[in-house]
Amino acid sequence: MALAPHVPLVRLPLWLVAAWPLLTADAFEIEWARVPYPGNPPDKTGHGSVAAEFEISKTEITLGQYAEFLNAVAAKDPHGLWTPTMHTAPTASMVRDRTLIQRTGNPGSYQYTVPATEERRPASFISFMDAMRFANWIHNGMGSGDTETGAYRITEEKELAVRQPGARVWIPTEDEWYKAAYYQPESEGGPAGGYWLYPTRSNEPPQAKGPGDPAQNAASFGGGGREGELHHTSYDFVPVGSLPNAFGPWGTFDQGGNVWEWNETIVFGTQRIMRGGSTPHSVDKLRSNVRSSASAGRKYPDTGFRLARPAPPAPPAP
């Protein structure tokens, strides 16, 4: 295996909102895809087997969602959840003048805003530490919720924090992420062996397309090499879910391309896995047999994350 350096908001029924009050996150419009078939076999790489049903966010966490998090917990920002590169981020031409999240004010009264044109684009310059704190915040009810304990005990375990029993949201493990992206049993229309090579329900490479394109086998990556492809360059991410038919087996968007996504799994003692490729990279990075990894504190211009959570209880029988 190589180791490389909008859909409409679906509101939960009232009975489910009552049962899972801290996980609806309506302010974020987080939508969840249920990943069934617990105890599924892994593929030939050994990845993808998950013991229990779970849900994964249909899209990557967006700049708008991350800015709301910052406004709730980072008036002082002692943990460096915001970085100046979010204000002057690289553009397709590498001119550093594209604002993602702007910070104004003074320590103790910082405020964060996102241009309307950027709100639905994936958050980037996010470290794994940032992602754990975001998960803790949602686990603890958002608002003034704690960022250091909850799903992850960052105070005690720091960059090696692992998911705690009873976590209400978390960063998906490599197996969870992999299953959501590539697994589809043959009985459900999947390929022989049950795993696709690309997270667009395809064993053929996707084409690079722009927002609104109706193609099923499409993604945001460094394209332009084939007829009919859009030439994506550098960090020109598309709004999440904006390739409406290019979804994975269980309804996720952009697990291939847009931004690399952190996985919870630890490798090399201290590093965390990243998967899915990104807009600046070539199509081969979207394949199931390609992964990357980095230290938990690293922030990259093309790396973000999505969340997972336990599968809510099935609705009562009528």
Structure description:
The structure is a single chain. By secondary structure, the chain is α/β, with parallel strands linked by helices. 13% of the residues lie in helices and 14% in strands. The chain has one domain (1-318): paralog of FGE (formylglycine-generating enzyme) (Alpha-Beta Complex), CATH 3.90.1580. The protein is built from five helices and twelve strands.
Helices, strands, pairings?
Blueprint: E1 2-3, H1 14-19, E2 32-35, E3 54-57, H2 63-73, E4 102-104, E5 111-113, H3 128-139, H4 154-157, H5 174-182, E6 207-208, E7 218-219, E8 260-267, E9 271-275, E10 290-295, E11 303-304, E12 308-310
Parallel strand pairs: 1-10, 6-7, 8-11
Antiparallel strand pairs: 2-3, 3-12, 4-5, 8-9, 9-10
The CATH topology assignment is paralog of FGE (formylglycine-generating enzyme)
| Strand line-up in the sheet with most strands | 1-10-9-8-11
Helix content: 10-25%
The H-level CATH homologous superfamily, spelled out, is paralog of FGE (formylglycine-generating enzyme)
Flag low-confidence runs. Answer: 1-27, 92-96
**Secondary-structure element sequence?**
EHEEHEEHHHEEEEEEE
Q: Whole-Å distance between the termini?
A: 48 Å
Mean pLDDT: 87
Number of helices: 5
Supply the helix-strand structural class: alpha/beta
- What is the CATH class? Alpha Beta
- The coarse overall form would be globular
**E-strand count:** 12
Architecture per CATH nomenclature, i.e. the level-2 architecture:
Alpha-Beta Complex
Number of domains: 1
Radius of gyration: 19 Å
Strand content: 5-15%
**Main beta sheet strand tally, sense and closure:** 5 strands, mixed
